[in-house]
Amino acid sequence: MKQREFTIHFTEYERLDELSEQQANLVKRAIDSAKHAYAPYSAYRVGAALLLGNGEIVTGNNQENAAYPSGLCAERVAIFYAGANYPEVPINMIAVTAIQNGDLQEEPVSPCGGCRQVMLEKENQGKTPMEVILYGTKRIQVLKQATDLLPLPFSLASKH
User: For 40-90, what is each residue's pLDDT tens digit?
Assistant: First the structure.
């Protein structure tokens, strides 16, 4: 038997102006996207913004549906749009934030398990680390790669 452990490193900031201009711009785009989310059932509006390897910025927001779980998370809306329109372009960075009852969430919003898996696959497909920015008004967490969010990913690839 071997005992193993995972160590995840991330940087935490207190204010948006502590981020680089590129990171702060991406967070602002995620905030703008969250404002346009379709969330009539939960009133929890999530926004995501991606910086692609070609410099394009793609945004997405959560889309709810009365036929739950037919909706889709902001991260996947943005990632799937990027994959459909820029299939060979890696994602260099993603910013995620949320608005609840009209106010930006104080704590960083963290992607669900499904979004983490999609982020990891897109990171692997692009062969480029995807920096992850999780924004809250009281603190901001920045991870160097999506893999840090999901250390034991689901995989159909088997090694013999």
Answer: 999 999 999 999 999 999 999 999 999 988 999 999 999 999 999 999 999
- Written as six digits, the tokens of 109 are 């919003």
**Which residues in 1-112 belong to E strands, given as ranges?**
10-13, 44-52, 57-61, 91-100, 103-104
Spatial distance between the Cα atoms of 106 and 93, rounded to a whole number of angstroms: 21
- Domain architecture of the chain: domains with CATH: 20-149 (3.40.140.10)
Sort strands 131-135 and 91-100 into parallel, antiparallel or unpaired: parallel
Q: Which residues are catalytic?
A: 75
Q: What is the DSSP letter of 127?
A: T
At 76, give phi and psi (nearest 5°): -70, -35
Contact assessment for residue 60 and residue 78, using Cβ atoms and an 8 Å cutoff? yes
